[in-house]
Design brief:
3 domains
Length: about 400
């Protein structure tokens, strides 16, 4: 019984610590690409404990059905031992995190140990190579003109605000999950992420793009279709932007771009507007010079015209052996039909992501004085109710 009480005390202590460090400190910002994974591991352990305790709680819905059974400790011996080991590990990490100075040291060591030592040389050489290609392209007025021909949109204008809206830790359940790991490790793989409006598809896609930007690889191109911006509905704009991103990522790609551009100059010397299927052919040609190309397009359902053609062309791009694709949209019938060869992944707003968002918003309001909660139990009840009744949004 003493062991059981020890576990219960450890659980209570761990939950208290986790509640303190769950959100980011104003004095030190987590790197969401690295340290947040450690917090996520702790959260998973807490959720395992919560599920067991809820099942044994006579006041809960699930526990009420067990009133006729003898009340007993909800953890089996081997599970108790596993939880104790997890708790001790997380307690050590989170106790260290309680000190701002110690947290700063820990995060610095993690960043240096995991990022600098393991990846610095590879990333440095890769970045230098890519910068060299980009500088030569931008520095050459003719090649700069060819890049402008593919499109003038700054795609980062969509990525930056989406990342700003994203709570650190959001989407880890997916980027650490089996489907995404299989996609990254398998050639010519393709995923279709679909869900209802408000399910968090765009924020999830921004998490995926950020995750891919932290890895060393040849080609990465993405695009956000936005219903508020008609130019993002244009197939030429979409495929031109994808081709432009790939064109600056390899020494041989500018040669393909030059051939393409020359073929679209008329006898009068004027530029001829490329067709969507021609741009797709350029993308395939560029991909042949890259070890692997990753194409991510969000919001297919928001395209107001030629949506079927855009979806068809993206599906055809995925047939190229050196290209892997992730697309996202609402579960529209025409899109589903076009993407029948893709692995479908249905998502609703993940409870872990909802907890991050709700907790963050509550803390912001408490800090600003617009919300006053004197009872910690009331705060917990507000969070639980909002998360449970979100219904996937």
């Amino acid at each position: 019984m003493s062991d059981h009480l020890s576990v219960a005390a450890s659980i209570a202590g761990l939950i208290t610590i986790a509640d303190i460090v769950y959100l980011e400190s104003d004095d030190y910002k987590f790197n969401p690409a690295t340290q947040i994974h450690y917090v996520n591991a702790c959260q998973k352990s807490l959720l395992r404990i919560q599920e067991q305790l809820d099942a044994a709680d006579p006041t809960s819905t699930s526990g009420a059905t067990k009133l006729k059974k003898k009340l007993k400790w909800p953890f089996e011996k081997h599970k108790t031992e596993e939880l104790l080991a997890d708790i001790e590990k997380h307690k050590a990490t989170m106790t260290l995190a309680m000190s701002a100075d110690q947290m700063s040291v820990l995060l610095d060591l993690l960043r240096r140990g995991e990022v600098i030592q393991k990846k610095a040389d590879r990333i440095h050489s890769s970045v230098l190579e890519m910068q060299g290609v980009q500088h030569r392209l931008v520095g050459d007025k003719t090649k700069q003109k060819m890049l402008q021909y593919l499109g003038k949109l700054d795609i980062e204008n969509w990525q930056r605000p989406n990342l700003a809206l994203r709570q650190p830790g959001t989407g880890i359940w997916f980027t650490d999950g089996e489907e995404f790991n299989a996609w990254t490790s398998t050639g010519n793989s393709k995923l279709w992420i679909y869900g209802i409006p408000g399910a968090g598809k765009t924020i999830l896609v921004s998490s995926i793009i950020q995750e891919l930007s932290n890895s060393v690889g040849d080609g990465r191109a993405f695009f956000y279709c936005d219903y508020k911006d008609p130019q993002t509905h244009d197939p030429v704009t979409i495929f031109g932007a994808l081709a432009k991103q790939l064109a600056v990522q390899n020494e041989l790609c500018p040669q393909e771009l030059e051939r393409f551009y020359t073929a679209h100059i008329g006898l009068d010397g004027l530029e001829r507007r490329a067709k969507p299927d021609e741009l797709c052919e350029l993308i395939r040609s560029l991909a042949m010079h890259l070890d692997e190309s990753m194409i991510i397009v969000d919001g297919l359902d928001e395209i107001s015209r030629d949506r079927s053609d855009v979806t068809r062309l993206l599906a055809e791009l995925s047939k190229c052996l050196s290209i892997k694709v992730i697309l996202s949209s609402r579960p529209e019938i025409d899109i589903r039909r076009r993407l029948s060869s893709f692995t479908p992944i249905s998502i609703a707003a993940c409870s872990a992501d909802l907890q991050l968002y709700v907790a963050s918003e509550i803390e912001k309001r408490i800090s600003s004085g617009s919300l006053t909660i004197s009872d910690p139990l009331l705060k917990e009840e507000i969070m639980r109710t909002l998360v449970e009744r979100a219904e996937g949004m």
